[in-house]
Fold this sequence. Notes:
Layout: H1 4-13, E1 22-32, E2 37-40, E3 42-47, E4 50-56, E5 65-76, E6 78-83, H2 96-99, H3 102-118, E7 121-126, H4 134-143, E8 151-154, E9 158-159, H5 189-201, E10 207-210, H6 229-241, E11 246-250, H7 253-262, E12 266-269, H8 275-284, E13 287-289, H9 294-305, H10 309-332, H11 353-359, H12 364-370, H13 373-379, E14 396-399, E15 415-418, E16 421-422
Parallel strand pairs: 1-5, 6-7, 7-8, 9-10, 10-11, 11-12, 12-13
Antiparallel strand pairs: 1-2, 1-3, 3-4, 5-14, 14-15, 15-16
Helix pairs in contact: 1-3, 3-4, 5-6, 6-7, 7-8, 8-10, 9-10, 11-12
Amino acid sequence: MRALPILVFGLAFTSAPLFAQNLYIETGQLVDVVGGTVRTGQCIHIVQDRIDSVAPCGATPKGARRIDWSDLTVLPGLIDLHTHLADAGQSADLALPLNTSPAETALIGAHNARVTLEAGFTTVRDVGTYRGLTDVALKNAINAGHVPGPRMFVAGAYITIPKGGGELNGVIPNEQLPADMRLGVAGTPEEAKAKTEFLISKGADFIKTIATGAVLAMGTEPGEPELTEAQLRSVVDAAKAKGVFVTAHAHGAIGIKNAIRAGVRSIEHASLIDDEALAMAKQAGTWLVMDIYNGDYIDDIGTKEGWPEEYLRKNRETTDIQRIGFTKAVKMGVKIAYGTDSGVYPHGQNARQFAYMVRYGMTPMQAIQSATIRAAELLGKQTELGTIAPGYYADLIAIKGDPRTDIRLLENVAHVIKGGTLVTPAQ
């Protein structure tokens, strides 16, 4: 892969973090996502990787480095709950994931992680990779400080039926695919349970199931159920025994209802959700993670680049109706958290979805909350992530202007701090 030497050079020599351990950040406006308000004149004291205090600005604490962001708006680091960092990306070439080696996939993932972090997303949930466990390796490399990237929660592989929406279909016979591309393939509840336990033992933080067909998988239909309710329940039960959540890729209403009844924590996409499924989600407290931006990207770039017509057709059949379902979910008060399906479109553009969420029913503050405090709640990390408050991880971003009046300002982040470390240069 010719680009790899350049990629590695870039990782070594760009975006070098400054390892400050005691910072005093002077803010212009501070977004309080808990109260849904904005405060002025506040300073944030960071010690090591946590926030020590948030209070009206005063003298710089002894030993701290004062950083002047008094002309900027400061928010919690953003969270994207539907990414594919550790993957080769989407293109017209169906064989790309197969022809990209595990080592190449990991290096591509390192690049994706860096640009995602620089875009202000300090935490992500990576919801699956064709090369199983590559996401675990990337998470471990980030945690060890070998590569810059967001805090990652990873699935390890897709739990999917043979030739289902989580398989690489249409390239070679699936039985001939490398073993690492079929780690989650399961045909029975017993196999689904075993695969779940295996992935958790190998470092998966949550489990991703494929409850319906997919838009971007050959030979599957988004509205058709795949994993049965019994299979989904076996995964949920096995994961619960290990203290792990389960999410379900589910476009069609039948698959969504199967997943809710089985006890999953969240539904990805929910493109064809109906009123009954919306009511079920609200009653059960099931989260929706709806990627309402990337349908436009697929239609535009996919058409220009010659993506398979099957992909384009299924995308057209799901994009507008998904947005209608999103608007209904917002009005009904169904739990919604931020997730974009980055990897389908270029990484680092994750914030482009905010404008769509506002267009289809959320207030700007609700959209911000979906990618901060609400996303942290879905992760079960609401006491550590998603808020600027004492004891929380020091994950911050700074932007110019007020996102309450122009949500697209979040697409241009000026500064990023992750875990007390300056990712972008301070002023």
